[in-house]
Every structure is written in C-alpha cells, then in structure tokens.
Design a protein that fits this description.
single chain; about 90 residues; mainly beta; five-stranded mixed barrel; 1 helix; 5 strands; globular
C-alpha cells in the first residue's frame, strides 16, 4: 500500500465493460521510494480531489472490488484523516 493525494478525475469513454460505473482518478504518491509517481486509481469509497488516501495495488485492489477478473491495478482503500509523523 502507498499514500497518495488525488489530483484529478479521469474520464474514458472507451474502456473495458467491467470498468463501467467505476470512478477513475489520477493520484500522486507521497513519500517512500515511489514519491511523486502518478497512477490511475479506481475509487469506490467516495474520495475527492485533494484528499490524501491509502491505495492498494495488484490483487488487493481487485479484492476491494470483489472481482478478481476486473482490469484494475490500484484502488483507493481509505481516506487519511491525519497522519502521525515520528519526531
């Protein structure tokens, strides 16, 4: 899992039928080795632009949608209220 900030919505008029009805967003990873990386994520929990979120990737993302055959590689699994930073 990684933390990220949601940057924008993504619309795709032509896509896999399995993606119909799924909200796609652009996220930018914050922190760690992947800091600054951007990725397309699906959001089924109602996050919005500017939210800091937790993103699961790979098979964990597909489990969030309860469909192992859906062509998703990253999904928002939580919205971060606040984070604790070590001193």
């Amino acid at each position: 899992m990684v933390t990220a900030t949601l940057m924008d919505n993504i619309w795709a008029t032509r896509k896999s039928e399995k993606l119909n009805g799924i909200k796609l967003m652009l996220a930018q990873v914050t922190g760690g080795a992947r800091d600054g990386e951007r990725m397309v994520v699906c959001d089924v929990i109602g996050a919005g632009i500017g939210d800091r979120v937790i993103i699961a990737t790979g098979s964990a993302a597909r489990r969030m949608l309860e469909d192992d055959l859906i062509p998703i590689d990253a999904a928002v699994v939580g919205i971060i209220d606040e984070s604790c930073e070590s001193v």
